[in-house]
Design goal:
Strand order of the largest sheet: 3-2-1-5-6
Order of helices and strands: HHEEEEEEEEEE
CATH superfamily: minor pseudopilin epsh domain
CATH class: Alpha Beta
Mean pLDDT: 83
Strand content: 15-25%
Helix content: 25-40%
Number of strands: 10
Low-confidence stretches: 38-46
Number of domains: 1
Largest sheet: 5 strands, antiparallel
Number of helices: 2
Structural class: alpha+beta
Shape: elongated
Radius of gyration: 27 Å
Length: about 220
Amino acid sequence: MKEHRNFLRRKSDKKSQSGFSLVELLIVVTIMTVISSISLFYFTGHSSLYKTQDQASRIIDILQLAREKALSERRTMRVTFDVTTTPATVTLIDETNNAVVRTERFFEQKDVRNNRRPANISTSPIEALPVVDFTYTDTRSIRFMSNGTVRNALIGASSSVEGVVIFVWQPDISTGAISDNAKLPTSSRAVTVLGATGAIRLWAYTATASGNVWQRNGGAN
């Protein structure tokens, strides 16, 4: 009996010294494969959401800065969006001396667009005051005035108080070209700027069956 126990102990020691068995290795590999698959699914499902949310947040930051400086310094502050550069940019300019205050660089157009509403989203956020789609093919500006209002790109008597909605979304590039359709509509964001008050709000697209498909997602009042 004693010899049998010694034999089992030597067998166990030999297994420990030789490492994992084939079955144990297969179990470890299977577990790692499952974990990797879950991680990949999580990453691909959230990467577009991260980029659109990040770019929308940067837009809000520079718009809010423009609003605050216009009110506190009693100056007209211009925010210019430009997709003719690589990468696209948004720039805050003090119109008193035409000085650049701040520039934000965006993700590449193939990753995130913000120069039009996606073709496969038919509605805009419902605001208390009118807002128009902020659409452009090269550059477009809005101006924050010292009285708190927001005006369109025109200057002087020709300009008018105008609220806008800026859409931020990931384009579908499955065909090899940058599409006007959003790859994942529910990752889309919108930033509204009210013309009469300068209020800035962030919205998320929800694609609900009824009601307002755009829901408030934060932002300044």
